[in-house]
Amino acid sequence: MKWSQFFSTSIGKKLLVGATGFFLCTFLIVHLAGNFSLMKDDGGQAFNLYADFMGHNLLIQALAWGLKAVIVIHAFLAIQLTIRNQKARPVKYAVKPGNKTSSWFSRQMAIMGSILLIFIVIHLANFWWKMHYGGIPTSVYDGKKVGDLYTVVWKAFGKVELVALYVVGMIALAFHLVHGFKSSMQTFGFNHPKYNGMINFIGLWIFGILIPALFALIPVYIYFNKI
């Protein structure tokens, strides 16, 4: 079987979804570390210099565009798998099997994934687009002129509706990661009593709770410190 044929199968698509998902998990850690400088009491210097570096370094920019492509591929393949699974079972169960055949998290993946995709689009429009094309204000540090994205973010998170949107988005991310991380590990063959405890711990407590909670903390912190 050719590689192109293999990746058109369900297992091939699951492997691609898992691989792109792992890439996105790595990005989340890096992105969270940078975003935490938003809460540093330095007038925005650390965050603005970080944003300027991320926005102008050629390697980072290549990875950023690759990341956007990965998000699209990940969402497209996940939608394809959902549709294929529904077609494979054209007659719905008279009584839902519940946890006997699948977890609650797995049954909500399409909904949570859709909410998350909408959130990402809004997030990019609010900050990434403004950073590159919106003509944001500037600040000068040690003679270097950089975009003042810090002020844009703090102003945006002064709106309670946007803070609420981000919290909802992080809840969707949490549910998505709880099932997605474990499912991806199983797809790649890491399904063994020796490793399952660690996989479940990382998937639930690190990616499912800690990372989304820390992301949600940032807009909440800004909102309550701004007012």
What would you note in describing this structure?
The chain has 9 helices and 2 strands. By secondary structure, it is mainly alpha-helical. The protein has a single domain, classed as Fumarate reductase/succinate dehydrogenase, transmembrane subunit (3 helical TM bundles of succinate and fumarate reductases, Up-down Bundle), CATH 1.20.1300. It has a two-stranded antiparallel sheet. Helix 2 crosses helix 4 and helix 6 packs across helix 8.
Task: List the main descriptive attributes of the protein structure presented here.
single chain; 227 residues; mainly alpha; 3 helical TM bundles of succinate and fumarate reductases; two-stranded antiparallel sheet; 2 strands; elongated
Q: What's the pLDDT, averaged over the residues?
A: 80
The main pleated sheet reads as: 2 strands, antiparallel
Rounded to the nearest angstrom, the radius of gyration is 20 Å
Instruction: Give the proportion of residues in helices.
Output: over 70%
In CATH, the architecture is Up-down Bundle
Shape: elongated
Return the CATH class: Mainly Alpha
Which strands sit side by side, in order, in the main sheet?
A: 1-2
Total strands: the figure is 2
CATH superfamily: Fumarate reductase/succinate dehydrogenase, transmembrane subunit
Structural category is: mainly alpha
Oligomeric description of these chains? single chain
Note poorly predicted spans. 93-102
Number of domains: 1
CATH names the topology as 3 helical TM bundles of succinate and fumarate reductases
| Series of H and E elements | HHHHHHEEHHH
